[in-house]
Amino acid sequence: MGKLLGNIIWWLFGGIATALEYFSAGLVLCVTIIGIPLGLQLFKLGLVMLFPFGSKVSGASTNPIGVIGNVLWALLAGIWIALTHILIGVILFITIIGIPWGQKHFKFAKVAFAPFGREVEILA
């Protein structure tokens, strides 16, 4: 019950907006054949944005393709999604009630810069 309530509150506190950003970027990448693997990773992260309580994102890419993908991503779209996370996090920190969700947004801002090569796990 706690995860469900946390996720519902998360949706209201910016989860839906950030999930739409990840899904939109994933859709754009899937239009190109080369971008399909990267787009699929963004779809996974979009799901994490919808269900952060009960999800786990770990690791970072060290292989050359992942590093190149992360650099291009950070320059083209990652900075905007990270800024969205930071802005929502700052707004949530204004109230005491919003601090836990603000902390989640700050954690996800790091993921927004380098999403490729990360392990995404949706826990039950």
Automatic annotation (TrEMBL):
Enumerate the spans annotated as Inner membrane component domain: 5-54, 68-118
Segments forming a coiled coil? none
One GO CC term, this protein = plasma membrane
**InterPro entries assigned:** Inner_membrane_protein (IPR052937), UCP028777 (IPR031308), YccF (IPR005185)
PANTHER family documented for this protein: INNER MEMBRANE PROTEIN YCCF
Annotated protein name in UniProt: YccF domain-containing protein
Please report the organism this UniProt entry assigns to the protein: Porphyromonas levii
